[in-house]
Design goal:
Sig_transdc_resp-reg_receiver; Arc Repressor Mutant, subunit A; DNA-binding response regulator; 12 strands; phosphoprotein; WH-like_DNA-bd_sf; single chain
Length: 237
């Protein structure tokens, strides 16, 4: 993998880079948010590891600007530990969120888990027998190209949002708990997912639902989780 490491603390950056290189990954690094954006625009990255307290531009702004032109997976690493900070980071388009202090092996494990999900996407797209397209009437999902259209207009989803929508629509009617969805998306189970998955659902609803406040498609089953409610016009192909 080609990883962009954005971290202002040199000691942490050096340790992470050393471990990443030991895993056989290519690493570009910076402590500056503005320069990080240039790197992402000029080089193909498979993953961004982003600290929030960086020079040049706050990490939140960097994440927001990345999402304007790229769906590259983003893992935020930060000393901000409030739940509201985590929710805000996910709302901006991050795929995962790790707080300091952290164990480097945890970071490595999170990256491998995310990579497994990305590889499964690639394998799914190369498998001719899997469902390639979903037509819900007002929106269309192309699983092969990772494209989603709502009322004829292409909607930009993050990697996590697209994976979440894919899981729900490929098994419509099935109820997934928050823990189940975390496993399907990230490749690991976390009993403390709480509002994190709720925020991903909220972001996804805002992009595909006619009225996100009264969702028609992604339905909450109180005490159980979420399911995709099949509408009469839905077609799988």
């Amino acid at each position: 993998m080609d990883i962009l490491l954005i971290e202002d603390e040199e000691s942490i950056r050096d340790v992470l880079k050393s471990y990443f290189l030991n895993e056989g990954w290519n690493v570009r690094e910076t402590d500056n948010g503005k320069y990080a954006l240039q790197l992402i625009q000029n080089f193909k990255m498979d993953l961004v590891v982003l600290d929030l307290m960086i020079d040049g531009m706050p990490g939140e702004d960097v994440c927001c600007k990345i999402r304007q032109f790229s769906t590259v997976p983003i893992i935020m690493i930060t000393s901000k530990v409030k739940e509201s900070d985590t929710i805000n980071g996910l709302n901006l388009g991050a795929d995962d969120y790790i707080t300091k202090p952290f164990r480097v092996k945890e970071v490595i494990a999170r990256i491998y888990a995310l990579k497994r999900r990305m590889d499964m996407f690639t394998n799914d797209k190369s498998n001719a027998v899997v469902t390639k397209r979903f037509n819900q009437g007002r929106f269309v999902i192309n699983y092969t190209t990772n494209e989603v259209y709502v009322d004829g207009r292409r909607v930009e989803l993050t990697h996590t949002e697209f994976k979440l929508l894919s899981v729900l629509t490929k098994t419509p009617g099935k109820i997934y708990s928050r823990q189940d969805l975390t496993y399907e998306i990230h490749g690991y189970r976390n009993i403390d997912v709480g509002r994190t998955m709720d925020m991903h659902i909220r972001n996804l609803r805002s992009k595909i639902e006619p009225d996100p406040k009264e969702p028609k498609y992604i339905v909450t089953k109180i005490g159980a989780g979420y399911k995709f409610d099949v509408q009469p016009e839905a077609q799988l192909s």
